[in-house]
Amino acid sequence: ILSGLVGSEMCIRDRYNFKVVEPRSAELEKAGFGRVARLPFILDSRPGIHRDGSEYLVERGLGTWNPSRPGEVGNRPSEKSIRNYASWLCNFLEWCETRGVNPMNANYVDHINGDYQTELVAGLWGSTGRPLSPKTVNRYVDVATDFVEWMAAKGKRSPVVVPLVTRSLRSQRASATGDTRLRTHQVRKGRVREAPSELRMPTDFEVDSWLESIYVEKGRTFGLMCETVLMTAVRRQEVASWRVDTLPVDPADWLIVNPTADIKHQMVAVSLRYGTKGRDYGHDHGDKIGPKRTIKIPLHLAEKLHTYRTRVRPRLLQKWVAQARGLKAQRERLDNSVHLFLNPEGVRQSVSGFYNAWKSGQLPYKEWSPHLGRHWWSCSTLMQEIGAGRKHQELTCEGQGTLTAILLTELIQLKIVPQLGHISSDTTRLYVQWVSDQLGEALPERYQAAMLDESEDES
Predict the structure, then answer these.
(1) What's the Cα-to-Cα distance from 191 to each of 137, 139, 457, rounded to whole Å?
(2) What single-letter DSSP state applies at residue 117?
């Protein structure tokens, strides 16, 4: 069935014999294979379906194979994640064939964590001929390791020994509830050490200039989408999936969480579910249905979104509806248009189109992206809240650094984590270091240790 339903091909580089393929989802669903209709599979060099690789992707995609707890059912990864797993596995299978290594016999020390990882780090294996970043190398090798462990668990090969080391990690969500205990987890030994990165944020002037250029050059839809990311820290998939009624249609139904505050500081609570990151609960109008998350958006942004919805969107939608032949077709188009942001043709604005528009403005620097827009919201919020907190709290005898550390701990857990949906310890470290740099003060060592949870070298 899969052989006859092959869709577009995606591979890491043109000379690869192994290819990651997307099935024709609609035809698979009609044939009764809805559970796997959106899962990619792998073609090998024959060409033919690579059975083991494709079966692994199915079990990984359905959550029946749980790498962290083999034997237990886990959450289904997102479509983007499973495609990444497929590409990384395809890369390993191609390497095995080229280097004459049989995945059935590949061992961790000599092959996977040995030659394969070494060639990725040195740039001897890859699409560009350049060394890959430590983070990317670890992702490639993690999937290769998981694949051979899966084969061993399925009885397709002999057991594989993967040495593990124990690490400690403080859960951000647990900390938000006051639980400060460290959780231990095991990771494979030999991972490439990921050097701490530095967070670069544009100035307010640079952001204002860039946003104005988007409005002028790309129009109101793209400008408002970019502004929504900056003001709310939503992901690009979430803003592209924003529905007409994500913000209640009637302003009288808006839930203002701080009605006694000055109007310029008032916030409106909004619930997101479409395009959110995390567990997959199905699809609706082309969007993944993910975990529900409530965020807060500034009242002035809510008013802009409402104005766009009532004045700009109807004109765009009219073009799309008018092109349909007959009243029935027009009604169908009208009923199926559920997204807020429409392109000039009157159909939903795509994620890729939004990303390209973001990158086309007068960028503060070339790396500036929607993901960094989320970081910009977090850093701006932290700086504003710390400034306000210092005005209302007396300094402790230990000085300004201690007060800043206490405020950071509270703000990250109470404001940043709920808005972003999740936050890793690496991201926490970036925020803490950035705020510390902007304030020109060092935080007490014990607070840094508690907030950052620096792990030992994994050599």
Answers:
(1) 9, 10, 10
(2) H
